[in-house]
């Protein structure tokens, strides 16, 4: 992840990592770890989970909100969505990519990695 961040001179690559084994994003029970994460990242520029510059999010994200935010930030752009994880989530992310590609000027291209 650090190598990708280093070669991204134009700031075109966004990496979103979610540690979903904790509570929903924004839940008070996950707030402490999120606060510690923000302090560590601000002070040292390093994520407490991965040890890289890519900041992880703690909690289960609202994927519709994530896609909406990306569509707003990147109008008329092509956005690659890369997912590695459980199939049920993969199906949901593919559906949202399709929906937002049709409802916004942003075109989402979904890619899945299976192990």
Instruction: Please report which band the strand proportion falls in: under 5%, 5-15%, 15-25%, 25-35%, 35-45% or over 45%.
Output: 15-25%
Helix-strand makeup class: alpha/beta
Reading side by side through the largest sheet, how are the strands ordered?
Answer: 1-2
Question: How far do the termini sit from each other?
Answer: 19 Å
Protein name: Ferric reductase NAD binding domain-containing protein
Organism: Rhamnella rubrinervis
GO molecular function: NAD(P)H oxidase H2O2-forming activity
Domain Ferric reductase NAD binding: 1-97
Write the layout of secondary structure elements.
Layout (H helix, E strand, L loop, with lengths): L1 H6 L9 E3 L8 H17 L11 E3 L4 H11 L4 E7 L2 H17 L3 E7 L2
Parallel strand pairs: 1-2, 3-4
Helix pairs in contact: 3-4
Protein name: Ferric reductase NAD binding domain-containing protein
GO molecular function: NAD(P)H oxidase H2O2-forming activity
Pfam family, one: NAD_binding_6
């Amino acid at each position: 992840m650090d190598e990708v961040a280093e070669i991204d001179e134009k700031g075109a690559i966004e990496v979103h990592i979610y540690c979903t084994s904790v509570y929903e994003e924004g839940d008070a029970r996950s707030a402490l770890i999120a606060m510690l994460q923000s302090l560590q990242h601000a002070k040292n520029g390093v994520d407490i989970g991965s040890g890289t510059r890519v900041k992880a999010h703690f909690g289960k994200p609202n994927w519709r909100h994530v896609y909406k935010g990306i569509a707003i930030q990147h109008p008329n752009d092509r956005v690659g969505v890369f997912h590695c994880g459980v199939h049920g989530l993969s199906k949901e992310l593919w559906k949202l990519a399709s929906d937002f590609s049709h409802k916004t000027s942003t075109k989402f291209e979904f890619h899945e990695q299976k192990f």
